[in-house]
Specification:
homodimer, Arc Repressor Mutant, subunit A, Aspartate Aminotransferase, domain 1, Aspartate Aminotransferase, domain 2, 7-stranded mixed β-sheet, 15 helices, 13% strand, globular, transcription (chains A, B), PyrdxlP-dep_Trfase (chains A, B), transcription regulation (chains A, B)
């Protein structure tokens, strides 16, 4: 018996072209068992008339369904549900118990969910004044070339790179480019055994933390510093000391004597934007040698140096293999890419590689290959260049607006970057300020989470300009000024 | 002064179209400082003649270079290196010290690199008889539709899904499809707070291991079982007991009394392919309730049930929230995708989600969205169907060849799958056998790594048929038979 055309209707919530929606409609009906093997489909003319679409649309959808074995075509007799079409199993799904008998908070010790992270509202892009850090700006991104590189990486020639289980390996094309073109810009020369790809800087810092620290190991964090580091180190069970940074970054003379590992953002301190002068870098490396500690250098955002030339990474001065260098494409391409890397002596990379394999194997091959093409075809350089020029204009507008509003800059970075570190008057709690401003379409980042929780000031905040259009900066800053004046 | 065309040559090792290679050539010259700001480029005609390419190719390359700000066009005067083109920094990269002063094997305790994993030669695809497990088969994969879905996920409408830092969140489209279409096939009904996306099953099992176990926690592994589980549990510092499986999988009555967590592959035991009967599943869940333990169910490869209908997952019988379910798209789409999921009570998902955020944040947005389209447009069902039919034919050929060669099957699975678990005669070391066969173009998987290392038999091996063409099976199996006869 033929299935009547009236059985079909096109729900508005289905996505895609008409042809795709018809295909999906038929496939779902088959999988859910509404249309059964051997049943005759409506004629393409009949279904087209019923749905109010052109006949060719239905014919193409049917042809595709034959190719994917949902339907078979019996010449002039028409289309039939294939006898080997996918089927739903016969058992009924049962809802999970409403009240679990196991208390997972107790059983797991809730060890991870307590970790404090920087959080932004998922709908940040719909805010008029998003002074938030680290998201991609659609108006600057080179969508067209990214798409072309991704498409090329989907080609038959790259089938293995796309689909293979690499286990603990990386895409040699991407590694090659990082070694030859990215690291030299930071003064670093390395071999392929000294580099490991990671799922962004977060994953790189986590791997370094796991491999280098553990119970009894003493680690130094800069105060303030990137909030996720705290969670990463809490998981290792080691001892964490906080050392206050000054306007030149981390002072080596303030390090405790028995430190084993130091995490630093020497070239561009997070969040104050301070650049560590060369003399202090040498002093830090001398201290590492004398006291036998190692250094994890998070060289985030070095690409965004548009005010003056960036200085070489700490890693480039490292003569003893004491520096573990962390880089990322999150700021220079986009964070959803989840692609970063570690550069370190082979002995350390070996451990990090084994741990990465254990936890996740490798970043998806398609992502790696797409990035390799985007980099090697020069699109990356052009994108970074475009971002630098836009950020420079925005920074100028920020500086003017901040001065006009009488706000206080606590750190702005000499080489560039994408944010200002700000101090509100003492007594202003910037978490409350942020909630007030949220109501007015302004997103700022309260500073408390960056500090040692034992003694965190509440009046700092960060203003980023990586995603806000230059034309909205003045009004946004003005609103912040008004809100602070109200809060004092 | 104009740069002479003779400065340019097209090295053979550059990839891409002629136009891309010219672009890359120019961009590299600029970044490396060979061509400087303000210098005039050769005319398109001059460069085309020199390189022996058409003039339009050079013109298009130049136009693209203007768009990405490497060059500027001054009308009829021609093209010039842009004054805001990207530049190499001025410092020289320095090679890392040849001999590191830090012994990272001692400092890190080499805790991870000792982990034994299943390894396949990276060039497995060039072998004539690859009886290896778990890679994608180019002859079955639906390349065209995957490409279309990926392309659609690269569209402007999906910019946020592509680029955003999701932090601890997942793509709602993919979650929706898993909840509505994948889990019901396993008899599981769940809500979005009960699902977490992971970087493949490896990452799911690792997260479950980290969240549920730790020092003092007693875990049971099936003997034999998936080798990476051992490494995952070693990292937690808990106690591991091995329990021998029989032809019905894990016997609940053999579990130690004080067990906290049981890892099982109930529906399709890895590597023996045994299916646990319903009565034993109920007994296992009753034991979990009586002894207050939880179960991690790795439901790998359930899609490949082509001999008879698959039975519902253990999770579908779980009335107390004791089962943590792990699924993956590695076998049904491809392993390089790195996409899997955990289904569990919300309290557990909360911890796993926080830990995932800490270690890597989230699987790349583009991967998630592409998979969501591929699934929801019905391509996934069609692909699985095609794979099942091919696997069925291959399995038949395997069974015949194995019988003809007089080899001994130790486990083959009643519902399907993609491998046979084999026993060579006692005394045959299958790791030596594998090395011999490797020379002859035959890849098999030695069984030792699947077992409790304290007492691992050496005569088992696995023969998979997920990537070997049906026409090569007979000859490959015959070679294995000959090699075993030689080894006895």
């Amino acid at each position: 018996m033929a299935i009547p055309p009236e059985t079909f209707f096109l729900p508005a919530n289905l996505q895609g072209s008409l042809q795709q929606r018809i295909r999906q409609l038929v496939a779902q009906g088959i999988v859910e068992g509404r249309f059964r093997a051997g049943e005759k489909m409506p004629s393409s003319r009949g279904l087209a008339t019923h749905l109010g679409v052109s006949r060719i649309t239905v014919t193409l959808a049917y042809a595709e369904l034959v190719a994917s074995d949902y339907l078979t075509s019996r010449g002039r007799s028409g289309y039939f549900v294939s006898s080997s079409a996918p089927l739903q199993p016969e058992f009924e799904p049962r809802p999970q118990a409403a009240a679990d008998q196991v208390d997972y908070a107790i059983r797991t010790g809730a060890r991870f969910s307590g970790t404090e992270m920087l959080k932004r509202p998922p709908d940040w892009a719909s805010f008029r004044f998003p002074f938030i850090y680290g998201q991609a700006d659609a108006s600057l991104f080179d969508h067209q070339n990214w798409r072309q590189c991704a498409l090329r990486a989907l080609g038959k020639r790259d089938f293995e790179a796309l689909t293979s289980d690499y286990y603990d390996r990386d895409d040699p094309l991407l590694i090659e480019y990082i070694l030859r073109n990215i690291l030299p810009r930071r003064g670093i020369e390395a071999s392929s055994g000294q580099v490991l790809l990671t799922m962004g800087a977060q994953n790189a810092l986590w791997l370094a933390g796991q491999v280098l620290t553990g119970p009894g190991v003493r680690t130094v964090l800069e105060n303030p510093s990137y909030p996720s580091l705290r969670g990463i180190l809490a998981q290792t069970g080691g001892v964490v000391d906080w050392v206050d940074v000054d306007s030149d970054g981390l002072p080596p003379e303030a390090l405790p004597k028995d430190v084993d590992v130091v995490f630093t953002t020497a070239s561009h301190h997070c969040p104050t934007n301070a650049t560590m002068p060369m003399a202090r870098r040498r002093a830090l490396l001398d201290a590492a040698s004398a006291q036998d500690f190692v250094i994890v250098e998070d060289d985030y955002e070095f690409e965004m140096s548009f005010l003056k030339a960036v200085s070489p990474a700490l890693k480039s001065l490292d003569r003893e293999g004491r520096v573990i260098y962390v880089g990322s494409f999150s700021k220079s391409i986009f964070p959803g890419l989840r692609l970063g890397y570690i550069v370190a002596p082979e002995g350390l990379i070996r451990e990090a590689r084994a741990l990465r394999a254990l936890t996740l194997r490798h970043p998806p091959g398609h992502i790696q290959r797409t990035a390799a093409y985007f980099l090697s075809l020069g699109h990356y350089d052009a994108l970074v260049n475009r971002m630098k020029q836009a950020f420079k204009r925005r920074r100028l507008a920020m500086a003017e607006a901040i001065e006009a509003a009488g706000l206080c800059v606590a750190g702005q970075g000499g080489v560039g970057g994408s944010s200002f570190w700000m101090a509100a008057p003492e007594g202003v709690d910037t978490e409350i300020l942020a909630r007030d401003l949220h109501q007015e379409g302004v997103l700022i980042e309260p500073g408390r989470v960056f500090f040692d929780p034992a003694n965190a000031p509440r009046n700092y905040y960060r203003l980023a300009y990586s995603t806000i259009p230059v034309g909205r900066i003045a009004e946004g800053i003005e609103r912040i000024g008004v809100a602070i004046a109200r809060a004092v």
